[in-house]
Amino acid sequence: MATGLEIAKQSETHVLRWGALLLCIGLVAVIGWFAYRYYTTGQQPPIPIALATPNQNVDESEVSLRDTQNHSVEPTQPRYISIPSLSINKARVMQVGVAPTGELDTPPNIHDVGWYKESATPGSMAGALLLDGHNGGPTKGGVFERLGDLSEGDIISIERGDGEVFLYEVVENEVLTLDDLNNGGMKRMSESVDDTDEGLNIISCTGNWIPAQNTFDQRVTIRAVATQ
Fold first, then answer.
1. Which tens digit of pLDDT belongs to each residue from 32-45?
2. CA–CA separation, 188 vs 6, rounded Å?
3. Strands in 58-185 per DSSP E
4. Distance set, CA 108 to CA 61, 121, 201 (Å)
5. What is the C-alpha to C-alpha distance for residues 84 and 156, in angstroms, rounded to an integer?
6. pLDDT for residue 2 is more than 60
7. CB-CB contact of 197 with 225 (8 Å)
8. C-alpha distances out from residue 136 to 101, 124, 145, 165, 179, Å
9. What is the torsional sign of CA 135, 185, 188, 108?
10. Among 25-29, 62-66, 94-98, 220-224, which is the least confidently predicted range?
C-alpha cells in the first residue's frame, strides 16, 4: 500500500513539472512576440518588459548662457530661434547637412536646432528655411518636445548672425508618418507655404520609437510664413 502511494505521488509531481515548464515556455513566447512587435513597429506591449531607450547617441547636456552668447554664424545665417508660446528663448541654430543615411541631419545636442545649409536664409525673400531638432533624449526633453502644441498664428523669431531679427507666423501644423514624409513630404517641407513670400518650416520627431529603424514613426511638421 505504501508503495502504491509513492508511485502516485511521483506521477503527480511529474505532471506538475511539465505543466510549469509549458507555462514558462508559453510566457516566454508571449513576451518574445510583444518584444518583436515593439522592435519592428514601436507598438507598446501591454505587459511590462524592458524596452529600448530612444536617442541613445544624443548629447543631453545643458547649454550654458555663455555657450549661447558665444555662438556665432555667418551674418546672413540663422543664429538663434525663439518661440514664445513654447518658452523657447534664443536656442542656438546649428548648420546641418545630410546624414550618411540620406536623411536630414540633426544637431548633436537635444537643446540645439539644425538649419539645413542648402535651404533659404532669413531675409532671402523667397524659398523656405528648413529647421529640425530633437524632441528629446533618453532622459530629457529636447528643444522641440512641445512642437506639436504650436497653433496657427503663433510667432517664431529667427535672429541672424548680424543681429537682425525676422518674424514668421505659423499657418500649418501637421503630423505625418515617416513614410508620408519620405514620399513627397520632404519636397513639400523644402518649399514655402506661400509662393509669394519667404517661409520657415520645422520638422521634429513624434509618435512611437521603432528600435529596428532607430527612429520615431511620425514627424511634427510646422510651416510658417514671414510677417515682415
1. 434 444 444 444 44
2. 78
3. 78-83, 88-96, 113-116, 128-133, 155-160, 165-177
4. 10, 22, 20
5. 7
6. no
7. yes
8. 21, 31, 6, 27, 21
9. positive
10. 25-29
